[in-house]
Amino acid sequence: MHLRKTLGISILLAVLCVVTALLSDSFLSAYNLENLIRRTSLFGIISIGVAFVIITGGIDLSVGSVICLAGCGLPWLLTTQHWPLPAALLTVLAGSACLGLFHGLLITRLRLQPFIVTLCGLLLYRGIARGFTGDQSVGFGGDFKGLRSMATGQIELPFIHGFSLPAPCVFLLVIAVLAAVFLHGTIHGRYLLALGYSEEAARYSGINTGRLTVLAYVISSTLAGFGGVLFVLDVNSAQPADFGSFYELYAIAAAVLGGCSLRGGEGTIPGVIIGAALMQVLRNMIALTTRHQNMEFAIIGAVILIGVSADELMKRWTLRRRAARALALAALPSPP
Amino acid sequence: MDSPLLEARNLTKSFPGVRALQGVSLTLHRGEVLAVAGENGAGKSTLMKILAGVQLPDTGELLLEGRPAGLKSVADALARGIALIHQELNLAGNLDIAANLFLGREQRRMGLIDIARQRREARPLLEAVGLDMDPSTPVGRLGIGHQQLVEIAKALAVNARILIMDEPTSSLSSGESRTLFKVINALRSRGVSIIYISHRLGEISALADRVTVLRDGRVAGHLARDEATHGAMVRLMVGREITRLHDRQPRPPGAPELEARGLRTAAHPAHPLDFTVHAGQIVGIAGLVGAGRTEVLETLFGVTPAAGGTLRVDGRDAVPRSPQEAIAAGLALVPEDRKRQGLILDLAVRDNLNLASLRRDQRRGLVNHRKADALSRSAIESLGIRTPDCRQPVRFLSGGNQQKVVLGKWLALQPRVLLLDEPTRGIDIGAKQEIYRLIGELAARGMAILFASSEMEEILGLSDRVLVMHEGRLAGTLDRDRLQEETIMHLATGGPSADV
């Protein structure tokens, strides 16, 4: 079923690419493709993080604000506070992980609802970022060229001329492979899916569901923090009032399009990455082929709605077929 | 005899892949209690849904007082005085009794609900079901037995002549059940007809004027009151004689496996518990609803940590603070609520079977697929789990097969002590026997078994020894030679143990 779902949205992605390429000459230009891959990689990284939380049956609304905090924090520490680079980078990433730990503990120990905890996080972290920057834009100016190449760098590919791979793509690939092995290969990944379907049954099976839930929130915030670093390195400066705002919704949408169910228990890493790509191609298509760029949100909203409705109908159909088969089996005489 | 109040002729109903009813006929007279018995999947629920207008039959007819009933919806059925009382009650817990009785047909004055009038009119209805309660009491505060009575009063409020009750005692204590039977008898003498569906054959013999037994979607037979013995009903239900488990030969018990000394549960910390389960022994925990049976098992398994006391498993001290620790000590629990606690319904049979043993079989953190597959295949075969393949979500298995999956999950770990909470709840008779046989085999292989059950037959038939609980304390321990239903009930209802 997962395979079919991932296949379905891959086909949708391919169709969207072909249509856009037919409608616009610039879609297949090296510059546009590089940009598209860079943005897909950046959003893919934060979507993978959110997917872990969604798989536990939770939600993380704080992602955009963690991106803002990390994205403003790094240049602020480096340029205003003059911290050494390793210390600043470590502080930003470890701090992001701690925010996830904080969410996870509030959710598992105090039994607060994930929606509330991360909604408060959304307000808190952006507020903090606006506070310590004095609501002024922070950036690298002309410095830190080497560091910025983490996001802006291009990797020349052998035998292909005129196109080079954006550096964030490498980060995405590494993170995706690690995440996929963890989720689909290890017993902990299996436990995570099981607890997403039914926390209680998982607990009664001897699974430490609290610790795994905390882990999911730590992964989400850490990847959001890392994403925030890459985003700010990519664009060179961050405006705390709107840096990363709405990104949690892009990430959640990508995860859901990629096959995660908000009820928990379902989702694959390849699916999430294709979901993130689909979101970016959609935005790209709107920008290239229509004059209604203001309608971007409306179009994206409509596409997601159609996608999940089709998925739900498909699921019901499969369930009905399976139920019918099970009933037919039950009606057979029992074996002697 | 006058024409029957309700007559069903040759009803058939098919669902994709299954014929639920095949030519079922039955009659119901005024002021009689007709029991409908049958295993799970025999077609009882489908028949009831057709009688109550929830579903339409494919063929066949329904006659009400000799004329076609013409039921096309639940509203039609209600208008003709037929009310279905579901197994899961349909009450709004946040509203009071009166509001529930008039839900959907509120008494109004000037567009607003006339609360005073509703409460006034609620009183005689509550009296009719013997419920001495203020109509302004919120339903959520009532016990499940009282809620059931409210549900019956609700049916009386629409002048129901025919009440269809689906497993009404499945979640009632025996005291609550007795109240319900009194109400049913009172209704019968008022001329109300009742169709009573139950697994509990003892209740049926006590209550019913006649019994219709269904098997595999057909009528297996009709029994009059004096023919409806336990044995006769079981023969019709399963089409074969059931060998009773009473015949199990108890073996001499081995070394003590599980020893609780002064164990106090979080729910009843005032009552320290002392008991021992030996290897190869089956110990039952009897008691009324709320006696604390589940709490004991969940404390042993670390779901709710103990409030005090000591526990020795296989001679080693171990008071588990989590299921993980309990499993490490050699315990396993088949929990009470199979669908919520025992299984992950959307996961495949294979993945449920592997859930507890993944950690042991891991290869440096990775799932060992080869081992996991082999394990699930052998469990499906050795336990006789009926499933099209191991990738089928357990949601689509019958109750008995689901329970075998829960058992298989734990047997993979070869626990020293197996705890079972209501091991056969909601399982049909054939599957029950298989579960009993399995439990017997496990004990014969030396596993220590401790189980809690509300079914007296199960307690009497399986146990080598019985712990009887009453309001959180151990009211008595009975060895096999002293096992008698009366003695157990005496202790379970708080009678002094000196009289035993």
Write out key terms for the chains shown:
heterodimer, A: 336 residues, mainly alpha, two-stranded antiparallel ribbon, two-stranded antiparallel sheet, 4 strands, B: 500 residues, alpha/beta, six-stranded mixed sheet
Concise synopsis of the structure shown:
The complex is a heterodimer of chains A (336) and B (500). Chain A is an all-alpha fold and 336 residues long.
Describe this structure in words.
The complex is a heterodimer of chains A (336) and B (500). Chain A is mostly helical and 336 residues long. In chain A, the strands form two sheets. A two-stranded antiparallel ribbon of chain A has the order 1-4. In chain A, strands 2-3 form a two-stranded antiparallel sheet. In chain A, a hairpin with a 7-residue loop joins strand 2 and strand 3. Chain A starts with a helix and ends in a 5-residue tail after the last helix. Chain A has 13 helices and four strands. The longest helix of chain A is centred in the last third of the chain and has 36 residues. Chain A is 74% helix and 3% strand. The longest helix of chain B is centred in the middle third of the chain and has 16 residues. The N and C termini of chain B lie far apart (50 Å). The relative contact order of chain B is 0.10. Chain B is 34% helix and 24% strand. By secondary structure, chain B is α/β, with parallel strands linked by helices. Chain B contains 18 helices and 22 strands. Chain B has a six-stranded mixed beta sheet, with helices on both faces. A six-stranded mixed beta sheet of chain B has the order 18-19-20-15-21-22, sandwiched between helices. Chain B has a four-stranded antiparallel beta sheet with strand order 2-1-4-5, covered by helices on one side. In chain B, a hairpin with a 2-residue loop joins strand 16 and strand 17. The chains are: A mainly alpha (336), B alpha/beta (500).
